[in-house]
Amino acid sequence: MALILFYLRKLFSVIKNEVLVLPSRVVVVLFFLFLLLVPLFTKDTYLLRIFTLTSIFAILAASWDLLSGFTGQMNFGHALFFGVGAYSAALLNKYGGIPPWGTVPLGGLGAVLAGLIIGIPCLRLRGTYLALTTLAFPIILMGLVFAFPNITGGELGISGIARLAGSRVADYYIAVVVMLGLCTIMWKITDSKTGIIFHAIREDELAVRTSGINTTRYKLLAFSLSGFFAGISGGIYAHFMRIAGPSTLEVSMSFQVVIWAIFGGIVTIYGPVGAVFVLFPLMEFLRFWQEYRILMFAAVVLLILLYMPDGLFRWLRDKIEKECPRCKIRNIATRDTCRICTASLD
Amino acid sequence: MTQSFLQIKGLTKNFGGLRAVNDVTFSMERNQVLGLIGPNGAGKTTLLRLITGILKPDAGHVCFMGKEIVGRKTWDIVNMGIACTFQNMRPFRRLPIIANVMVSCLSPRAMKRGEWVKRLEAKAMDALEFAGISDMAREKASTLSQGDLKRLEVARAVATEPELLLLDEPFGGLSPAETDLMAKSIRRLHKGGRFGRLHSEGPAMIIVEHKLQWLMKIVDRIIVLNFGNMIADGTPDEIVKDPRVIEAYLGKGDT
Ligand SMILES: Nc1ncnc2c1ncn2[C@@H]1O[C@H](COP(=O)(O)OP(=O)(O)OP(=O)(O)O)[C@@H](O)[C@H]1O
Ligand SMILES: [Mg+2]
Q1: Is the ipTM, as predicted for this complex, more than 0.90?
Q2: Which protein residues touch ligand 1 with a CB less than 6 Å away?
Q3: Whole-number Å distance between alpha carbons of B163 and B194
Q4: Which of A105, A213, A241, A251 is deepest in the core (most CB within 10 A)?
């Protein structure tokens, strides 16, 4: 009893001292709670389906940010990882009889392999050259898919694979929990020692080398990690849709990811995740004006990028929080003095 | 035959038709501070880049502590104990200054002494303290002045705890007062010892510099390059009297 009380008090003090002091943290906690509680209020399959897909694509967008935002390796062919994850999971399930909890991580590992295969030739490339080269890889794989239709199903894809879970609600929870977990892991990675090196590689690769860091190893690590997370999202997608088709490898899929990430704000992890949660449902609701859908979508993206070049969520965060000029700790924008060092905030 | 600390033999580098470094041969000892001078475009920066493996030589050898280092990766060379700074500073602009130095602290060489995250930051802080910019540790590197960027370069190099330090124009763009401070730091570093958690091996140094009057006070030997050729090698006193050096700097006919 006393122990329970102790932990309750501890939880309370953490919430009070660590969460409530910053609005962005409150928002994150509310976001977690909201997603976990949605099925209690609605069992509407259409809504749950949208949120499930949104979660799957949120993983994909965050994994792009890890590679291209943080490490600066512009990947315009991120659909490759998604597609490899989806096809690996589907093939393993259909021909290997492995259930989804096995095929999804294995699909992630397949995408790691893809990350290494494209990472090695891309090590020497930078900027536009890297972007164009990576753009080609999913197209090459799509060519292979069409070349071996008796294995891959060609244009129709591999259908009839096992469902992710028994019900829509279970599907929803799997996607949401995996998304929250993986995005937290990605955010932790970027906040770690490895994250500092990723940042530094983006800024100046040569200077990282002369600091004694094996940049080849870290770039390949970034490709593999990003591939792993994207591959998992691809695997979940395949089992949720019960089909792995060539649409997962399309160029428009690669661009979609880039648009999401830039819209939300790159080099943040939370930006791309938030952006998918805004843009993907928006795209669905715009179905009511089917003929103007793409146009409206483009207009929204353009407006945001014109007025918030650092992305929507960075912009929002800077509106509600201020950085202390002295100790660089973030504070709620309504404060006049820093909560740590009491320096004036203006 | 005893092995020299650093031995350079017949080092040559061409850029297209231009021979930037031509058949340079010299060796230096563990306790030396070597000045490398020469007119603009003489090939000084290129020579340093050949040593650190940023550029591959067309011919020649570099032996560091008895091991051939030509053909090795830059990070391997740094982890063997050669650190360098850039003439046109290359900080990680959007990162805080402390993170700039933490990258060096994360190199295998610096990690050998068993650091973990908290200590890592403290060690980076000590490197900044040594360079005299610790009060700006949380600022972004893009906000630094020219002089402070030079000091950041030094802090970054020192954080790998090198045996040989290559400084490319450490006084470039610095005011006289700042130059004085930098010269003091360099001398202190060469003496070796501990600066907080940072350990200085008292590295040997090669210093490229145009401000000769300052350089003379730090170095005990000078090598002069002109059009990629080594034209003189001696103590500072010998060098200022050497007619070939005067000719290289002032041109023919003025002597
Ligand atoms: N990457 C490169 N590609 C082509 N030419 C180069 C390159 N780097 C240097 N050079 C040329 O090589 C020659 C030597 O250059 P270097 O930078 O080594 O001179 P330096 O002695 O450092 O001069 P400074 O005192 O101006 O720094 C110059 O003529 C320069 O134009
Ligand atoms: Mg130079």
Answers
A1: yes
A2: B 15, 18, 20, 38, 40-46, 87
A3: 14
A4: A213
